Amino acid sequence: MSAIWFAKPDIEDMNRQMQGTACSNLGIEITEVGDDYVRGTMPADERTLQPVGLVHGGANVLLAETLGSMAANLVVDPSQQYCVGQEINANHIRGVRSGTLTGTARAVHCGRSSQVWEIRIENSDGKLSCISRLTMAVVAAQNHR
């Protein structure tokens, strides 16, 4: 299988892009890029828990959108296009109180004007905690401000 990426991904650069953002504030880190997926982690700690002690659904969604958005932008030529989130949904399957969440974003569809990504988030035991679907709009670079 050949990689779906426009250019060879640089994990260090991807993590650098997240510095000083909501992503770094929640401890999100890109850990792996395969030929057709982006994987990253987020801790289940005081930054990501809601008051009853479970990982906040919004934190799951932030992890999912981060991974899917990073992946989507790796598919396009950045001098011509960029991708922005258009719609996201998430089903929270299993509550998590501690450990590390690992999310994996894989493309369902990469078209000329939109992309759809599935992001599976697992707990430290490898059990599904959340599944998300993210739709990205592909936008011409000259529209970028």
UniProtKB/TrEMBL annotation:
It comes from the Bacteria. Residues 53-130 form the Thioesterase domain. Keywords: Hydrolase. GO terms for molecular function: 1,4-dihydroxy-2-naphthoyl-CoA thioesterase activity. One of its GO terms (cellular component) is cytosol. The keyword Magnesium does not apply. The keyword Heme does not apply. NCBIfam families: unchar_dom_1. Belongs to the thioesterase PaaI family. This is Esterase.
